Amino acid sequence: MLRHLTIPRGPIELAADLHLPGDHATPRAVVLSTPGSSVKEQIGANYASRLAAHGITALVFDPAHQGRSGGEPRDLEDPYRRGEDISCAIDALSTVPGVDPDRIGVLGICAGGSYAVHTARTDHRIKAVGTVVPSDIGAAFRGFQPDGPAAALDAMAAARTEENRTGELTRLNWLPDTLEEAGPADLDTTQAITYYRTERGRSEHSTNRRLARGDALLLGFDPFHLADELLTQPVQVVLAGRRGTTGSYESGMRLWKMVPNPVDLMVVEDAGHYEMYDVPEYVDAAVDRLAAFYSEHL
């Protein structure tokens, strides 16, 4: 059963979907933190609906400034606001009749893994932390800069000054809009475009754009900072066996080795990063393991 919700978040509201195992919520519940550029009808729905089928109430939402959630300017990817989004989602989920506020976990996918870990370090209402192909989005963005992150920040500072002068905000593509636009590309980029920008996974509510000024925040973001001291909750890490170019295998292994309470590590052999978004055999295998993890630790 699917129920649409709005989540108060200061002066704005987040659009959310509550996936229920039946007519009512169950005591165990999970908030999903989705990849960058993704909206709740995409990867989050694939995992939330399956968790609900395993008897776990699951809440997935559009981040502030994106999808059908409120917030201006649009298309902002602010890692710190993404963390507060999760905490606001927990506020809302803990008031749903039938949900036990002491049995709420989080599931972070891709960049959502960064945001889930970042939030769970200090929001200990989160009792269990699951991740699927967790990407350290800060490290990834720093690695994208050909002249290094400090030089990129200098350029971003100048660009923001110019934006303030003209009043025109710059937006960047997360991905090329078409395979033709991408040209020759590695397998992960091809699979990302095939998921996000074709009928396979496209959503009219996902713009494939991010506000350029938010990139400075991403460059300085370290989601795993103090995780070795503060992330004391049980942690599960699910990785794609084909490493590819996303860095999620490496960041997931780093997280696994860092946290004080690692419970379960799963490597889905033969799967690529983006195949963990919607290929049934891979997603089903991951959710089976996640459901067992949450059933034990929530």
What does this entry look like structurally?
Helix content is 39%, strand content 19%. It has helices at 43-53, 79-93, 111-120, 137-143, 149-166, 179-182, 187-196, 215-219, 227-230, 248-258, 275-278, 280-297; strands at residues 2-9, 12-19, 29-33, 57-61, 104-109, 126-132, 171-173, 209-211, 235-240, 262-268. The strands form 2 sheets. It has an 8-stranded mixed β-sheet, with helices on both faces. It is globular, with a radius of gyration of 18 Å. The mean pLDDT is 97.
Outline the secondary-structure elements.
Layout: E1 2-9, E2 12-19, E3 29-33, H1 43-53, E4 57-61, H2 79-93, E5 104-109, H3 111-120, E6 126-132, H4 137-143, H5 149-166, E7 171-173, H6 179-182, H7 187-196, E8 209-211, H8 215-219, H9 227-230, E9 235-240, H10 248-258, E10 262-268, H11 275-278, H12 280-297
Parallel strand pairs: 3-4, 3-5, 5-6, 6-9, 9-10
Antiparallel strand pairs: 1-2, 2-4, 7-8
Helix pairs in contact: 1-12, 2-3
Quick structural gist:
With 298 residues, the chain is α/β, with parallel strands linked by helices. The protein is built from twelve helices and ten strands.
Strand percent estimate: 15-25%
Mean pLDDT: 97
Helix-strand sequence? EEEHEHEHEHHEHHEHHEHEHH
Low-confidence stretches: none
Strand order of the largest sheet: 1-2-4-3-5-6-9-10
Count of DSSP-assigned helices: 12
Q: Pairing-aware structural class of the strands and helices?
A: alpha/beta
First-last Cα distance = 21 Å
Query: Radius of gyration from the CA trace?
Result: 18 Å
How many DSSP E strands? 10
Summarize the amount of helix as a percent range.
25-40%
Biggest sheet character: 8 strands, mixed
